[in-house]
Design brief:
homodimer, mainly beta, Ubiquitin-like (UB roll), 2 domains, 4-stranded antiparallel β-sheet
Chain lengths: 177, 177
Amino acid sequence: MLRPYGSTWKFGVRNQRPVICRQSRMGEETAARIEAATLRPGGVLCYVKWRMQQPDFEKRGGLVTVVTQDADSGEVLMVAYMNREAWEKTLNTGRACYYSTSRKQLWIKGETSGNVQDVKEIRVDCDADAVLLKVHQRGGAACHEGYRSCFFRTADQSGWRVVAERVVDPEKLYGKK
Amino acid sequence: MLRPYGSTWKFGVRNQRPVICRQSRMGEETAARIEAATLRPGGVLCYVKWRMQQPDFEKRGGLVTVVTQDADSGEVLMVAYMNREAWEKTLNTGRACYYSTSRKQLWIKGETSGNVQDVKEIRVDCDADAVLLKVHQRGGAACHEGYRSCFFRTADQSGWRVVAERVVDPEKLYGKK
């Protein structure tokens, strides 16, 4: 990629990997991993082949941990996992896709229940092995038990208590078994 | 445990495990796993030995996933992991303790940096393999890179961008290396 006019470049190391950062005219920073770079005498960058940064799927055996949060209320709805395919499908479709560790397959959230999650923002953590999705939860319930959030129980030394109301009948979500 | 006077009992199945629920006079529900139970003729419970519910550490090789959220703002601060020891230490001390998967040891958050997390509430998810901590973050920064949250970068198809301000100099948190 040729150096675009009007932007400045920084080299650096982030998470123990070489990165190149583009400081755009908007003051925003885009980081990518260098695959190849050529410098002119004096250290002037003249060519760089880069690859857009990806979450670190290698660190935890092919998966990253995903926290899904209601974009409006900030309520944490669920925790799940993504492999590379689920990550790319989420980016490309704007709907939350996970990897089901029990079914061992791609899990398009809401495909059966209709309770699709429309992704409003994606965040990545410092180690790039965890992802935060801010979503709009269609149908009101993220949890297969019919609660808005999977975290419907509180725990302390005296035990666990349900502290939320069911918003959907689970049998209506998946059909009576 | 003898049946306490003035409370009612329900048997049921939750997460594919037998549970007994005590409906106290306060209307709160405490659930525990049955280890042994004796019924009098007619199905009247006369004796039950129970164990307080624990997160499902077996499902993911001894660890549960932990999401840590600012108790006031709702901001997701970090994702980490707990083994049974970290879970019990968190319950007993009221301060967030994790299991460091890189150092392979108990990690008392803030022990080095001083940025302790005071736990205000603990939630457990439907499968009992993920925990949500609502905390007060001392020192303002949960992230070792000096940001309030580890999720300081946003991602979309065009790349990753830092969208938060550093609140602490990381060298001040851990000392210059």
